[in-house]
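pasting for ref. prot 1 ->
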Amino acid sequence: MNAQFLTAFSDVSKEEWSRLNQSSNPFLSHDFFTSLESSESAATSRGWQPHHLSLSDNDGVQAILPMYLKNHSWGEYVFDWDWAEAYRRNGFEYYPKLVSTIPFTPVTSDKLISPSVAHQNIMEPLIEYCQDQNIGSWHLLYCPETSELPHDVYERNTVQFHWFNKQYQSFDDYLSTFSSRKRKNTRKERESIAKHGITIRQISGGDITPEELNFFYLTYQLTYLKRQHTPHLTFEFFEQIFKRMPNNILLVIASHNGNDIACALFFYDEAHLYGRYWGCSESFHNLHFELCYYQGIDYCINQGLRSFNPGTQGEHKIQRGFEPVLTHSYHWVKQPEFKAAIKDFCQREQEHMRNYLIHCRESLPFKQGTL
């Protein structure tokens, strides 16, 4: 197949993408990638230089791999800052690197958009390309697990916590699978929201008003500013996806004394819910748990969705019934001086993550025999 690298997602036709893309994942939609780039959220000016791989033969485009040339490691959620620092200390340049991911979206999916080409089939060509172009490394993030790897491609794992719908009929039906103490704690958390006089509304994407969008973005910014960080995504990005993807968006807003005080934004497809962004202008105990977790579980049960991915990290999710799930990413580095050290790091990290997953499963709140 012929390889071509595209410098903008607008060079990928929506028709070709739709023909190749067999997933209903909203983050793999043409509209999502288009909004990221056209809103300047994932753009060269922010260290995300589009470098999308298109593979074609005589019958047309057969595969597309979204990729970015990067000069930093923000927005990836598979952390390699220590690798970059080790390079710097030893007089080497770690960047630029070539990263295949959905920017700012740590959700497992087929990053190679193709009905016929597998991830492992493009690893050797990517190695050759990086060597030819003097690119120091490539990284394939949050993709399905594969065991067929070139000898110097290394796997990394992280643990996320996901909720799974066991055909629950109601939230109380779900809680009936908890041990008595855990069930009581969860009910107290939810009841505390009503005792504060807080009301909550769920709004589908097409019904979100400009005022609600403005309030959401205010709280989104506050979440970053509290950590002295700059928000990754621009207002224009959310403005665009609310228009382009209304059937994949759920906004949950909490109000107190007639004023909106907090938001949580979710995406969904035909089977899955994804919690993505949260923020508040006024803080109440347990409000984060209610908006980001319990409202999502309620929505999944009511809509018959199979699973709920609320985002990265957070051991506090375990006691609320979110089960540990292993994620997979693959990495190649060009610099021979670092190959052995990075391989050893990845192997030790893998062992730690798999042991951590077992430990987390032992801490789940379910009664024996219900998991």
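and prot 2 ->
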Amino acid sequence: MSSIAKLFIMGNPRSGTSLLRSLLNMHEQLCIAPECGFLLWLHERWRSAVWTEADLVRFADEVAASKKFDTWRLPPDQLKEFLLAHRPEDFAGAAELVYRCYAERLGRSILAWGDKNNYYTAHVREIRSIYPDACFIHIVRDPRDVAASYLELSKASIDSAHRPDLPVDAATIAKDWSAVNDRLLQDLDGAPGVVRIRYEDLVVRPMESIAPVYSMLGLRPLTGMPRDGHVGTLDEPAEFMQWKRKLAGPVDAASVGRFASDLATEQIAAIEREAGPLMKRFGYEPFLHA
């Protein structure tokens, strides 16, 4: 197994996973790639491969054909050359080389690589079967603000083929949020190599919030945020920026508690009925009182 640390960001959609990626990518020895689920999509098919030269070429082609991989701007021929030069022994090694090749394209010499995908929240055990030494971040956000973000997104003009398909019914949003975060609690609580972060803390104290992640990965801490508060987006695909435009601005807490003005009373009530017990576990107090 490679000595390079591996990090997976887990969270419900619109919970700050992209912001967390941008913040963590400020460290030049870490590279968290844009979204693409090739790791799990190709695992079953390639887990028993013998990794001949022909296998590596076919694997590279299948990675390149994976949904959203085009947004990495990583030429397939460059990926093939990288795989053939390093000759992995198993699927874990082959997949890791994809992330390392992406980092090399950006000119980064890394001690850790990462992946961020909401799809992964239901597949922690499979990821651990591939990388037993993997590290995880569970980021959680107030479901009422998540709902407000979903509803804002539903009204936005987005022409990207990768536009998120998210529910707009408050009770459904709360049910989905509860399912995702309850599953992550079960899969990650008490396990080594796990950091949990609340979005509300991340936007107020970003460097303090991510410091335990760098420590977990064995990376030296960063000295602080850029003076203007802008962290950059490290190759965030233009195709995603229509709904991630806030990444281009400074980190701020303006969206914390937005639900109080953005949601109707009945929407807030529906979320608190559906997600109330789990909200309390994460420190989110009810807004409405019986």
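The CA atoms of residues 23 and 64 lie 27 Å apart.
The chain has a mean pLDDT of 90.
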